[in-house]
Specification:
Number of helices: 0
Distance between the termini: 37 Å
Radius of gyration: 14 Å
Strand content: over 45%
Length: 132
């Protein structure tokens, strides 16, 4: 399995930037869909950005397009979320997630990374982002 640990959250003024990091350990993240989700109290987890570690186009929620960028460093099993032009509505707990290997499974995630929490099996503990 994959263990994920997020970092980089904090408080920032509206219009500012933050860079979240997700360090993976255990099994390699190769051949998986990885993503960032966020959640506020009383709401379901929302997909923010996702990508497949084998490459291809990333998928973004409409609310963050043009502001957030997801990226990876496979050699270090690290996933990033660069967040620019932050808005108060971006305030949430942000979670890193990884799917199971898409080999022999959900191969279509290679074509379009998923923003659905149901497609992910491994989760970090979250890092809080507060924008004011």
């Amino acid at each position: 399995h994959v263990q994920l640990v997020e970092s980089g959250g904090g408080s920032v003024q509206a219009g500012g930037s933050l860079r979240l990091s997700c360090a993976a350990s255990g099994n390699t993240v190769s051949g998986r869909c990885m993503g960032w989700f966020r959640q506020t109290p009383g709401k379901e987890r929302e997909g923010v950005a996702s990508m497949h570690t084998s490459g291809g186009s990333a998928t973004y929620a409409d609310s963050v397009k043009g502001r957030f960028t997801i990226s990876q460093v496979n050699t270090k099993n690290t996933l990033y979320l660069q967040m620019n032009s932050l808005k108060p509505e971006d305030t949430a707990m942000y979670y890193c997630a990884a799917s199971r290997s898409t080999t022999g499974g959900k191969w279509w995630l290679l074509l379009r990374p998923s923003l659905s929490a149901y497609d992910y099996n491994y989760w970090g503990q979250g890092t809080q982002v507060t924008v004011s």
